[in-house]
Amino acid sequence: MAGTLAGHHLLPDRYGLGSFVESFLPWLGVPVLLLLLVALLRRSLVALAGVLVAALTWTVMFGAGLLPKKRASAYDLRVVSQNMLDGNPDPTGTARALKRANADVIAVQELTSATYRAAARQFDESYPYHERWGTLAVWSRYPIAGEAQPVDIGIGWVRAFRVPLSTPEGRVELYNVHLASLKVGAEGFESGQRDRTLRRLARAIAGDRSRHLVVVGDLNTAATDRSFRLLAEQLTPAHEAGGHGFGFTWPAAFPMTRIDHILVRGLTVSRASVLPSTGSDHRAVAADLTLG
Is the residue at 162 inside a domain? Predict the structure, then answer.
């Protein structure tokens, strides 16, 4: 077990095995705990020693994230991101819940015509500036500072776009993204398309020289997934900087992995959180940001 935890990046990714295991990597603490109980019941010193090594490995990897972080109360920009779910039975309720978060910017993914209309009815009065591309939209309290641009992530239609926002503290480039997902097929899990979309997004960000940059959305990639490093090498994950706990977002009823993210460059994260379930199959993520 300790070997799987410490060497998860060495697992072969054929049939998506590596990505699948890494998506749920923190949950390996459950079998470690069960094995610890078995070792104690059997009074086996050898087994206990082995399990303690695994427990120590898990603690080193994930323990710091469970400790409370010192959070600043002041912020310049509050951002919320939500996958709306194309079959959402109550899009109006979801939009109302997002509005209660009192964000400056709300980014949503997986919109349909019906969910877009429901969201617009809730947001348009409080958020006079908005941009929509396909199944993605952004509502903002602050003006849009220029022309929004689609970002080609290789799917064939717009699943990512960039919009410049003029905040009181300066310009911020916001990327709203919905990457391809892991697929389940006859040969197991398939992560190839997801990885291709992630690489294209990473290249686009690498070529963006903006001082203040925020990437939000359903990235279909857990923070523990080996592919996530393509973004984490360039950007700061908000949850790691200002969140508490694992920050799981999916599935909403009993979250087991974090695939919805807010990542930043040139901004300081004052606070990051996962919002309560809103009726979607994803939970929304929020972050309070200060322009540096």
Answer: yes
